[in-house]
Amino acid sequence: MKIKESAEDYLEAILILEKKNGAVQSVDIANYLGFSKPSVSIAMKKFRENNLVSMDHNNLIELLPEGRKIAERTYERHTTLSRCFRMLGVSEPNATKDACRVEHVISQETFSRIKDFVRKFEESEEKNESQPGPDVAS
Question: What is the model's pTM?
Fold first, then answer.
């Protein structure tokens, strides 16, 4: 199923809020994304109809397996791209904003290469940090 960018943003927001707060309600999503509560309610109805989320009698929203899969994929792309942009010296606000745009359009092949690059770079940084520096005599 091809999913729209805005839907990926909603599902990613649910995942982030779930990690942060445990339980998620529509008002939490509206506040997090800066959307109106009616807009969020309409989106949640569509997500329920497409088996991406469920809502219990307390109006708590839960990601269903397909919704969680989309949210986790989007979140992984976002965090990996943000880290990559930060490695390149991009400011935190711009790295986050640009990652949010790119995460929706980047091909799987390109993302996989960036992910491998970021992992190798971070591993080499960890090795460099764990190795003692030269012994400097006073």
Answer: 0.84
